[in-house]
Write a structure and sequence with these properties.
The protein is mainly beta. A hairpin with a 5-residue loop joins strand 7 and strand 8. The termini are far apart. It has one domain. It has one helix and nine strands.
């Protein structure tokens, strides 16, 4: 059985948010196309978030989640998600290292380390 809640530690590198996850073979995997701006909003009140913060995410709601993203459409082997009035962002095919198929909704929470 796969984890219901996933955890990564994004940080700023080369003017964008990236993360490492050796368990799935990722190193400095960048967030692009709208997702960095969403992360900026999520971490606005986390001191020194650019040095790293804990990001919890799941396909089902969990206690304390702060963001609900809704799947909009697939494009370029990735998936676009919408965060209410905070725009849309594209998640690359690395999404499928965590989920067998793109969830209809993604729930997330940013926490200080």
């Amino acid at each position: 059985m796969a984890n219901a809640i996933h955890v990564i530690v994004p940080y700023r590198h080369a003017s964008t948010w990236v993360f490492d996850d050796p368990r799935v073979g990722l190193s400095q995997e960048p967030f692009v196309s709208g997702i960095p701006e969403m992360i900026d909003s999520m971490v606005a009140n986390i001191p020194n978030a650019e040095k790293g913060f804990r990001l919890l995410f799941a396909s089902e709601p969990f206690p304390g989640y702060q963001v609900k993203l809704e799947k909009v459409r697939a494009e370029y082997e990735g998936v676009w998600y919408r965060w209410d009035d905070n725009g849309e962002g594209w998640l690359c095919p690395a999404l499928f290292l965590y989920f067998p198929e793109a969830p209809t909704y993604l729930y997330a929470k940013a926490e200080a380390l």
